[in-house]
Amino acid sequence: MMSAVRMRRLRGSEAMRRLVRETRLHPSQFIWPLFVRSGTGVRTPIGSMPGVSQTSVDELLRDAERAMTAGLGGILLFGIPDTKDAVGSSAWDPHGPVPEAVRAVKREFPDLLVITDVCMCEYTDHGHCGLLTPSGDVDNDATLALLAKEALAHAEAGADIVAPSDMMDHRVAYLRQALDGAGYTHLPIMSYAAKYASAFYGPFREAAESTPAFGDRRSYQMDSANGREALREVRLDVEEGADILMVKPAGAYLDIISAVKRDTRMPLAAYQVSGEYSMIRAAAERGWIDGDRAMMESLVAIARAGADMIITYFALDAAAHLARR
Ligand code: PBG
Q1: Which among 52, 78, 118, 119 is the best mutation to test ligand 1's pocket, defined by most ligand atoms within 8 Å of the CB?
Q2: What are the record's GO terms for cellular component (predicted)?
Q3: Other CB atoms within 10 A of residue 147 CB
């Protein structure tokens, strides 16, 4: 006896498929990462990330306008400072690239949500995400104070959300206390809660000029084999006061996104990182895959897994794609 059920009935036309579609993407879910440095008229393409550039603040404003017009959820700022030192002191310079960019964007486009990445690796000459001990280990507790100074510089400039990406223990609690103490009780923290030590960050390190001078980040970022550990990490960040959680990278960690969503019910972001972006762009350039379709499929998969928002270098392209349909 054949089953009366025929799954193909609901796949016959685009109109039918659209009706039964379970996951929908909207530009307001996309957060666009941008790299800012000093100067004027600067737009330096990043070789390993076709379509992505480092820009000066004036050029960044053009991108901010594009983000506004496309209805993106927000932008995420990374700074490339003029000078680096062992403690990363340019990270809390009120006239560093990120605070300058935040002030300019909030002045020109007050409704555009501006998120700042809070980490030391772009600002230290050794490229690690915190202060080093004499033996070259990252000193967790000494790093917290530096991160707080950086987050406060971003808050004072007018950032809407601060996003610590360093993976030091207790940094969410420390930042929450520092922000509250300075009167920023209203400022949300988006925590890079489950951030893995990943080969997919390769192109970003060219973009942010933040490759570690020695060693790697495995003593603070997570081991890609671990899922239960991610739940411990995120629960800790929730207890410490994180407002939005993040899983990073996204594509190779869809199970983590799904588990975190189920386990916490928190607003959840996923970061489709540089390597995920560049792989799709590179294969599309060679004509090996349809770049547009691969872009949308990768994003819908991240949303289907449970991410409420997606940080992606495709933000503008994906929004344009959605507007065309
Ligand atoms: C800073 C940071 C990194 C990324 C975001 N914030 C690099 C790293 O941890 O090495 C990676 C983003 C990407 O690859 O797109 N700690």
Answers
A1: 119
A2: cytosol
A3: 27
Q: Which two tokens stand for residue 93?
A: 């310079």
Confirm whether 232 is domain-assigned.
yes
- Burial (CB count within 10 angstroms: exposed 0-12, middle 13-18, buried 19+), residue 254: middle
195 is catalytic: yes
Per-residue pLDDT of 215-250, as tens digits, reads 999 999 999 999 999 999 999 999 999 999 999 999
Could you tell me if residue 19 is inside a domain?
A: no
* Cβ neighbours, 10 Å, residue 182: 14
- Is 121 annotated as a binding-site member? yes
Report the nearest atom of ligand 1 relative to the CA of 272. Answer: 15
Main-chain dihedrals φ then ψ at residue 299, nearest 5 degrees: -70, -40
Whether residue 24 is annotated as binding a ligand: the answer is no
Write out the residue range of the structural domain in which residue 118 sits: 24-245
Reported as a single tens digit per residue, the pLDDT across 113-161 is: 999 999 999 999 999 999 999 999 999 999 999 999 999 999 999 999 9
Inside any domain, residue 98: yes
> What ipTM, to 2 d.p.?
0.96
What average pLDDT is seen over the chain? Answer: 97
* Residues facing 246 on adjacent strands: 269
Domain count, the chain: 1
Q: Is 259 part of a structural domain of the chain?
A: no
Residue by residue, DSSP assigns 188-245 as -BEEEEEEB--GGGHHHHHHTT---SSS-STTTSBPTT-SHHHHHHHHHHHHHT-SEE
pTM of structure? 0.97
**pLDDT tens digits for 157-180?**
999 999 999 999 999 999 999 999
